UniProtKB/TrEMBL annotation:
Record protein name field: E3 ubiquitin-protein ligase TRIM45
Record-annotated RING-type domain positions: 29-98
Keyword Endoplasmic reticulum in record: no
Entry similarity comment: Belongs to the TRIM/RBCC family.
PANTHER family the record matches: BONUS, ISOFORM C-RELATED (PTHR25462), E3 UBIQUITIN-PROTEIN LIGASE TRIM45 (PTHR25462:SF291)
CDD domains cross-referenced by the UniProt entry: Bbox1_TRIM45_C-X, Bbox2_TRIM45_C-X, RING-HC_TRIM45_C-VII
InterPro entries in UniProt: Bbox_C, Filamin/ABP280_repeat-like, Filamin/ABP280_rpt, Ig-like_fold, Ig_E-set, TRIM45/56/19-like, Znf-RING_euk, Znf_B-box
Pfam families tied to this protein: Filamin (PF00630), zf-B_box (PF00643), zf-RING_UBOX (PF13445)
Length: 580
């Protein structure tokens, strides 16, 4: 039987650079990081030492399983088929990819042995001058020789004993260092049921390798053949499956490359946007700081201006007070200590001075006030290209200067919204130019003072306030408009609420004859008629007003309120004329 085999895999694609440790071809355990010792192949195709797997914490789940298990293992391939039963299933998690691994009945030691990893470990050990390899016979001393016939690694002592035995005298024994160029030096794979026999056959029925003793025992009458004869058929099936898998590998590599590229683009975009945010925020901060400095300078200028005004007023009042005191003291002294002649001599000067002093006009109150307010939400224009907010206002609203504007100041309709505008001004009569003042409006019926109408005051933020209300009933209403709890100019005032505006039910026409299409029975509120039995008006005929009018009430204004009351004087036939 030939031992030369065609490689199982005809082609192998390049594995991703991030492939985890433990795959075939690797020599170190991903857990202990040492060379594999009795490596076991997990269903996820990761390889781990047997002892390392036994140290993993198992978990138990209830599973319905039959005699056959999907988990590939050498220890379970010869078990008899059992009927399905409910039994606890012990499992572990792959330490590399966290895949759930259901352990066979034999536990970790029943998992498939990774012989390829064993061969790689031996090759790795050979590259290190045999360091780490022990004799296959005594399991004690380091390996020096290898029997090519038995495929066993031997120490010096066991090699001499191997040559003295008759059965192995003529076996080919070579130095271990002479095997460094080999790609495979693995030991023979022995049958787990018959440890003395090598697995050389393949049972087609059970789809597993067997030995000579197996085909005469458990696998009697099963079709089988040498492994070297069936490897091509099974290898081709694996190759075909690999061909179907390889495109997925390429697609995933491409997807990962795109993800990496997108991640790189994302990072660049984030950095660019972050730079924009920083540039914007830094510019905005500078704009705010500059606006802050402007406001503080403006505030300082206001302080200086007001203080100068106060100091000037103070100096003037102090000088006036000094003059007054001089005049008063001198006059009192003259009247109390002067003789009659002295009084008469100086009377003219004293009277002239006191008269002049008494005519001097002065204000008993400070000429300026401390009314300075900061409005943080008021727009202050643009600074460095940014919209900024916050203004300093020294104006103080004067209710007596505030005025009311609007067409609905003194008239309104029931159940229709009426409105007017309040324009706030300061003591100088200038518009405030800002909002935020305390405005209160009340609309009270004259005969129902305990039932005020709900009002809405909208601050336009420019010194004007839009006031609206909807009276429910006709009558006389009193409107009170107060700013800072003081009535504005013209408040309170009365509003006459009339009944709801009545729409016209007829047509606005030139004559009944035209609008009705020549109907004889159509009438008009103007009272005009035409010869020939026409009950409605016509151009140039009796009763026609000579200009367009409403057919329902006779009014001449197109935009007007209908006055038809629905009485006998206006038959309904005159309301149904049609505009042609």
């Amino acid at each position: 039987m030939s031992e030369n085999r065609k490689p199982l895999l005809g082609f192998v694609g390049k594995l991703p650079s991030g492939t985890a440790l433990g795959n075939s071809g690797k020599t170190h355990c991903p857990l202990c990081m040492g060379l594999f010792k009795a490596p076991r192949l997990l269903p996820c195709l990761h390889t781990v030492c047997t002892t390392c797997l036994e140290q993993l914490e198992p978990y138990s789940v209830v599973d319905i399983r039959g005699g056959d298990s999907d988990t590939s293992s050498e220890g379970s391939i010869f078990q008899e088929l059992k009927p399905p039963s409910l039994q606890p299933q012990i499992g572990i998690l792959c330490p590399v990819c966290d895949t759930q691994v259901d352990l066979p009945m034999g536990g970790v030691k029943a998992l498939t042995i990774d012989h390829l990893a064993i061969n790689d470990v031996m090759l790795e050990s050979l590259r290190g001058e045999g360091q780490g390899l022990v004799c296959d016979l005594c399991s004690d001393r380091e390996v020096e020789k290898r029997c090519q016939t038995c495929r066993a690694n031997l120490c010096h002592f066991c090699c001499q004993a191997h040559r003295r035995q008759k059965k192995t005298t003529y076996h080919t024994v070579v130095d271990l260092k002479d095997l460094k160029g080999y790609s495979r030096i693995g030991k023979p794979i022995l049958c787990p049921v018959h440890p003395a026999e090598e697995l050389r056959l393949f049972c087609e029925l059970c789809d597993r390798p067997v030995c000579r003793d197996c085909v005469v025992g458990e696998h009697r009458e099963h079709p089988y053949d040498f492994a070297s004869n069936v490897i091509h058929k099974h290898g081709d099936s694996v190759r075909e499956l690999l061909r179907g898998t390889q495109p997925h590998v390429e697609a995933l590599e491409e997807a990962l490359a795109q993800i990496t590229e997108m991640n790189s683009a994302l990072q660049k975009r984030v950095e660019a946007v972050a730079a924009d945010v920083r540039t914007f925020s830094e510019g905005y901060i500078k704009a705010i700081e500059e606006h802050r400095d402007r406001l503080l300078k403006q505030l300082e200028d206001i302080r200086v201006q007001k203080e100068n005004s106060l100091q000037l007023q103070k100096a003037q009042l102090e000088q006036l007070l000094a003059d007054m005191r001089t005049g008063v003291e001198f006059t009192e002294h003259l009247l109390t200590s002067g003789s009659d002649l002295e009084i008469l001599i100086t009377k003219g000067v004293v009277v002239e001075r006191l008269t002049k002093l008494n005519k001097v006009e002065y204000s008993a109150h400070p000429g300026v006030n401390d009314k300075i307010r900061f409005s943080p939400q008021q727009r202050a224009g643009r600074c460095r290209g940014y919209e900024v907010y916050g203004t300093i206002n020294t104006k103080e609203v004067d209710p007596a200067k505030c005025v009311l504007q609007g067409e609905d100041l003194h008239r309104a309709r029931e159940k229709q919204t009426a409105s007017f505008t309040l324009l706030c001004k300061d003591a100088a009569g200038e518009s405030m130019g800002r909002g935020g003042d305390s405005v209160h409006v009340a609309v009270v019926p004259k005969d129902k003072k305990d039932s005020p109408v709900r009002t809405l005051v909208q601050d336009n933020k420019d010194g004007t306030y839009y006031v609206s209300y909807t009276p429910k009933e006709p009558g006389i209403y009193t409107v009170l408009v107060c700013v800072k709890e003081q009535h504005v100019q013209g408040s309170p005032f009365t509003v006459t609420v009339r009944k709801r505006h009545r729409s016209h039910t007829g047509v606005f026409h030139c004559c009944t004859f035209c609008s009705s299409g020549g109907q004889k029975t159509a009438r008009c509120a103007c009272g005009g008629t035409m010869p020939g039995g026409y009950l409605g008006c016509g151009h140039g005929h009796k009763g026609h007003p000579g200009r367009p009018h409403w057919s329902c009430c006779g009014k001449f204004a197109e935009k007007s309120e209908c006055t038809w009351t629905g009485g006998e004087s206006a038959p309904r036939s005159l309301l149904r004329t049609v505009a042609l």
